[in-house]
Amino acid sequence: MADLALITGASSGLGEEFARIHAARGGDLVLVARREERLKALQDRLHLEHGVEVMVLARDLSVPGAARSLLEELKDFPVEMLINNAGFGGHGFFAEQEWETVRDMIRLNIETLTGLSHGVLPGMIKRGSGSIMNVASLAGFLPGPLQAVYYATKAYVLSFSEALANEVRDQGVIVSALCPGATETEFFDRAGMDGVVVRKFGVASCRKVADFGYRSLLKGKTVAVPGFANRFMMHSLRLTPRWLATRASRAVMEKK
Q1: How far apart are CA 243 and CA 143, in angstroms?
Q2: Catalytic annotation present for 150
Q3: 6, 8, 9, 215: which has the highest count of C-beta atoms within 10 A?
Q4: pLDDT of 142
Q5: What is the pLDDT of residues 95-111, one digit of tens each?
Q6: Count of C-beta atoms within a 10 Å radius of residue 149
Q7: What is the pLDDT of residues 23-75, one digit of tens each?
Q8: Which residues lie closer than 8 Å to 130 by C-beta, 6 or more apart?
Q9: Structurally, how many domains does the chain consist of?
Q10: Sheet order of strands, 5-8 included
């Protein structure tokens, strides 16, 4: 398989769009998500439209050891691009959430992302080429009452990506954190966020966000924030007192 991209959370949303973009450029793919039917339908379309090789693996990446198991299956395939897109959130007070849901969120958003990065990075360094995109969020720049764990996981992803990018900057490897704001995906529905204030501000096109993230990765941009308003917010958050940012964050997460 040539110019191989491994994409997690590839059955819909940003993951599906990343797959379409990479296939259109002639790159082969390994697509990972839980929903096998959707993966196979996407596999057929991409092969038909672009003639690329597409491997699909239906996996739950929130289970213990998911990253190691996946990497073992792909040990004979050199991954040139890793897009860690799989992740989920939840809405509500931390003390009222089911521990199993919180635990799985941490495993998927942090542990699996880190494990996959650790697994593919040595090969990239040895070849002197490769790229890793970690899908973070604008949420990574501030605390998130009513989404406390999700925001914290994205802060980890952002910090981890920035540090890793610095470590490999002279070894031919690119690491980029994509930090979108509200985006047209299944995220809100899965997180039980129908009616939250932030949805009233409008959401970005999934395709536009994916295209921005992919182009930013190719350009070697360490932190990629799509949209002028989001970039303005990011810079403003860096200057805003944390207590005020936290209050504002809660305000847009309330259900009205």
Answers
A1: 9
A2: yes
A3: 8
A4: 94
A5: 999 999 999 999 999 99
A6: 19
A7: 999 999 999 999 999 999 999 999 999 999 999 999 999 999 999 999 999 99
A8: 79, 80, 81, 82, 120, 121, 123, 124, 172, 173, 174
A9: 1
A10: 54-58, 29-33, 5-8, 81-84, 130-135, 173-178, 223-224
| Residue 202, phi-psi category: left (phi > 0), alpha (psi -120 to 50), beta (remainder) | left
| Cα 246 from Cα 223, distance rounded (Å) | 22
Given this model, what pLDDT does residue 191 score? 54
Quick one: pLDDT at residue 240?
86
Q: Whole-model pTM? A: 0.91
Count of residues making up the chain:
256
In this structure, what token pair is assigned to residue 27? 């790159």
- HSE of 54, CA atoms in CB hemisphere, 13 A: 27
Count of alpha carbons within 13 angstroms of residue 115, beta-carbon side: 21
**pLDDT tens-digit readout, 195-220:** 555 555 668 899 999 999 999 999 99
CATH code (residue 55): 3.40.50.720
Structural domain boundaries, residue 93: 5-253
Query: What is the average pLDDT value for the chain, to the nearest integer?
Result: 93
